Amino acid sequence: MMTPRFAGNGLPCLIGSLPLTDYVQATRLVWEHTPEIPLWVQLPKMPGESMTRQFAAGLPGLAEADGRAFVDSEGPDFEKSLLSFYEEALALQDAPEGLDRSRFAMVPAAAGGFFELISQAAKRTPPPLAVKGQIVGPVSFGTSLCDRHGKAIFYDPQLRDASVQLLALRARWQVRRLSALGRPVLLFIDDPALTGFGSSIYIGLSREDICQSLGAMIDAVHLEGGLAGVHICANADWTLVLDSAADVLSFDAYAFFDQFVIYREAIRRFVDRGGLIAWGLVPTLSPEDLQRETTDSLLAQWESKSAQVAELGIDRTRLLAQSLITPACGMGSLSVELAMKALQLTRELSNRIRKEPRA
Predict the structure, then answer these.
(1) Is residue 72 part of a domain?
(2) Domain containing 288: what range?
(3) Sign of CA dihedral 352, 286, 14, 274
């Protein structure tokens, strides 16, 4: 068994979004509830912070019409812009110190929460144990962004490759900037579209294309010394993550645990190699569920579900050491009141889990 590069120890961590419009206020809430592993907040109520658009800047052919972003690969300047893109990307592979001056750097207008986290972190005493960032995954990005004819760019090998290059270098930029805080960096690749693999939702998605694209982003995070997580907030073929080089698997343990735990051998291999499980036990995708649940009821879920994973042959002490406690997904679509409850439940549940005597 490998020792994990970072011990989760049942600490609380968030997924990304909050239903606010003030970066200072949102970041202070992050510090209040998850000071050990703070993240930069995404505020989808702010212009330009949709999951895809937030990370799309710099992609060759990116255009907008009627409020919709798309890739115009038939424009007269596309080939020239594509060549320039690859020249810049290639140069940065060997000289990543130039990332901050490149098209792959994010700007405050697109990610105000990122820069606010860095600003507030510089004043925090004691410092956090780690810091967390997030980026859209290649499948979600490539299936939600289309060309001018409405075809998802993931199905175009050239556009898929360019988008993966864009996201991989943007991931490297994030890890590099966050690493300057002097703490371990977790970067979660948020890729809910992975749920479509093997279904009629995305006909033509191949395992090879998915694994290559996801693997390129994980490798990019590792190149900068970060830990790569993959977050999926619905059911999926979990071997896509468990058998990858990802360091963290983040999933909706509230709603989809039964579908997850059937991957017995893959889960055991993942934990044995030091992988962390981020348990999304606080429901955020159903307001009704969130209104109903309490710390006690969610603690009972943890006890039951962690026991089932332990039955796979995983020591419970080790399992806790390789676990994080999170909301099931981001909170950007919730009311402010329910988002505050989710923050509180995540903190309280983690506290209770870490104080409970282990069997």
Answers:
(1) no
(2) 11-54+107-355
(3) positive
CA distances from 314 to 243, 271, 274, 311, 319 (A): 17, 8, 12, 7, 7
Q: What is the tally of structural domains in the chain?
A: 1
pTM here is: 0.95
Token digits for 108? 């405050």
**Banded pLDDT at 358 (limits 50, 70, 90):** very low
In a domain, 79, yes or no: no
Contact 128, 121 (CB under 8 A): yes
Structure tokens at 97: 């110190």
Query: In terms of residues, how long is the chain?
Result: 359
In a domain, 70, yes or no: no
Weakest-pLDDT range from 203-207, 209-213, 252-256, 263-267: 203-207
Q: Which two tokens stand for residue 239?
A: 């071997």
CA 103 – CA 241 distance, rounded (Å): 29
**φ and ψ at residue 130, rounded to 5 degrees:** -160, 170
Residue 64 forms part of a structural domain: no
Average pLDDT of the residues in 100-121: 96
Quickly tell me which residue has 């309490």 as its tokens: 294
The chain-wide mean pLDDT, for the chain, equals 94
- Alpha-carbon distance of 102 to 89, in angstroms, equals 9
